[in-house]
Amino acid sequence: MRISEVEIHEFDYRVERTGTVGGNWVYDPDSTAEPPGFVLTIRTADGTEGYYRGFAFTPPSIAQVKMVAEEHLLGRDPLERRGIWQDCWRALRHTDHFGLGAIDVALWDLAGRYYDESVSTLLGGYRDSLPTYASTTFVDDAGGLDGPEAFADYAEDCLDRGYDGFKFHAHPEVRPDVDVAICEALDDRVGDEMALMIDSSSLYRTHADALRVGRVVDDLDFFWYEDPMHDGGVSEQATKKLVAELDTPMLGLEHVRTGPYGTVDSLANGSTDLVRASAHLDGGITGALKTAEAAEAFGCDVELLLGGPSHIHLMSALRNSNFFEHGLLHPEGTWILNQGFEGEPESIDEDGRMPVPDGPGLGVDIDWSFVERRRTGHTLFE
């Protein structure tokens, strides 16, 4: 069995009542966002196919898939995922490896369809549903999630729906006072019943601001404190200093694209307590699995960045992962979680857990009518 075609369908999403502030997604009742997306199809001569629906950093991901399609994919056995992964990791070494995530996930989907087994089964998965936390859009100033009471009200709603945890993204205009007030309101309203997290998304420009907010979440016993420093977590010395000064576990490396190799350096240096991994951005299911197992060997947990079917299947097989991230959520908006798929595969059940699809491959089907209706580009390598 050999790869005979690599096909990319480009399209755009439609997200109503959503805009950006400084590149961060926020509620905006007067805006409609139309971010780019794509579907990568890897096809063999006998018609076996695997798919990846992309939603994050679409332009560089597509560009990098195109960089390696002819030399490293066409003519290869698609079941040799590890060999393809290694070749593409090296080929994309001067970039951030974005394209490898799409390639690897599509190959896992193809393998599952070939063997008529779910990706979870191929991974040795042992959970059929996952504990899940609600992950919100950023603080807005438009009458949505615009302050402590709004967030506390929404957290109560998420608690009623069964979510195990709640995380908010900080104010995109860098307002630590607002972030602190939201932390306190969440703790007061649902702190005894939900795990609480703050994602500062590398917004704080000074160590003083990061430390100030960190000491508050220490007092409130938050589950984690995520990526506070403006350098994006690249400086191990800066984050190591903060880790040493705070008790709340620091979740880092979301914005660092060094994969499992850089992760072990950060863990060995004590510059993070918990690590981020992403099938979308860090080399697919194979890359994120490498990172998770490296973290496990250090006695550390890994948390998968945002959702998608690939993360549902991967987390079903991980021992050292606490929650599935369901986001980005807002009481007045619907994010792009399920757009491009048939049905709504990324939806919690009545107990607030995320079910693991049990169909072949990723267990989801592409909504080709949606893709064709909103298509903006098409590329075929054969």
TrEMBL record:
<feature type="domain" description="Mandelate racemase/muconate lactonizing enzyme C-terminal">
    <location>
        <begin position="148"/>
        <end position="249"/>
    </location>
</feature>
<dbReference type="Pfam" id="PF13378">
    <property type="entry name" value="MR_MLE_C"/>
</dbReference>
<keyword id="KW-0456">Lyase</keyword>
<dbReference type="InterPro" id="IPR013341">
    <property type="entry name" value="Mandelate_racemase_N_dom"/>
</dbReference>
<dbReference type="InterPro" id="IPR013342">
    <property type="entry name" value="Mandelate_racemase_C"/>
</dbReference>
<dbReference type="GO" id="GO:0016829">
    <property type="term" value="F:lyase activity"/>
</dbReference>
<protein>
    <submittedName>
        <fullName>Mandelate racemase</fullName>
    </submittedName>
</protein>
<dbReference type="InterPro" id="IPR036849">
    <property type="entry name" value="Enolase-like_C_sf"/>
</dbReference>
<dbReference type="InterPro" id="IPR029065">
    <property type="entry name" value="Enolase_C-like"/>
</dbReference>
<dbReference type="InterPro" id="IPR034593">
    <property type="entry name" value="DgoD-like"/>
</dbReference>
<dbReference type="Pfam" id="PF02746">
    <property type="entry name" value="MR_MLE_N"/>
</dbReference>
<dbReference type="InterPro" id="IPR029017">
    <property type="entry name" value="Enolase-like_N"/>
</dbReference>
